[in-house]
Amino acid sequence: MKRVIFDTDIGIDDAMALLFLHYAQGVRIEAITTVSGNASIADTTRNACYVRERFGIDARVFRGASGPVGPALGQGHPDFVHGKNGLGDISFSEPLQGAELQSAAEAIVELAEAYPGEITVVAVGRLSNLAKALVLCPRLPELLKEVIVMGGVFMRRGHQGNVSPVAEANMAGDPAAADKVLGSGLSVTVVGLDVTEETIMDEAFVETLQTQAGDAGSFIYDITRFYFDFYEGINDERRCPIHDSSAVAYLLAPQHYEVEVGPTRVVSEGVAMGQTILGLYPERYASDAWQGRPDVRVCTSVDAAAVKTLYLETLALAGK
Hints:
CATH class: Alpha Beta
Helix content: 25-40%
Strand content: 15-25%
Shape: globular
CATH superfamily: Ribonucleoside hydrolase-like
Number of helices: 13
Strand order of the largest sheet: 3-2-1-4-5-6-12-9
């Protein structure tokens, strides 16, 4: 059984990833922890509670960081991508049950201590909550099994950033937190734009979900109307990357990814703020910024067809 904390700024692609986890075999979602990003912390927390309630997800929700721990690239929330409510502006009722009183960082520490060596954090938003949890519990790297992060870009096959030429949104939204987490000694795998932008969903993909995945498929179809409108506006095509669900895919089937390993830094200031840099040969560098940094696994290649098949087959369980 894989015990998972889903750490999320829940917008459209986050909701798709949460349902992927929910219907996956052999996974137990121990908690959903929220962070600001795709929407405000109030909205991401409400969205998490709503998705949990609608689909009967047996997990507590914990409200997390309302902003970055340090300087960030940009302000506000990308409502032009995810809608003003973060879920493509679909209509829905307020959830009956809200978040717990305990903070997200406290919950991460408590669960790590309760299940030492068993908890995987799948982090698909800014890494603010994990950075705060490391302050609360410096032993966290000894307690967590692993952390799988959706974020960053390493310029493989010509992929560039989505909020600057070199920066991806989650990393740029709290680069200080990201650099702290990647340098903490946690067992980290980064699933960035180099592979998520190779894994594309189109209308046919979503229509298959709508047909085969019951209410989950209908929900995904509804929330992706806004998402596809955005991507059509910039690419003239109704297709987009499968971002956050790629982190879940790595958890479930890491064999579909190739990785490179080395110390990894996140630039926290200047024109390259939010850039993720993999140092494959730290012993050769003049800068000491790489010395003593732990290795991080960075996904650099993906069997995209296999990932999409895994998603469709997993969500099909929701229709049975």
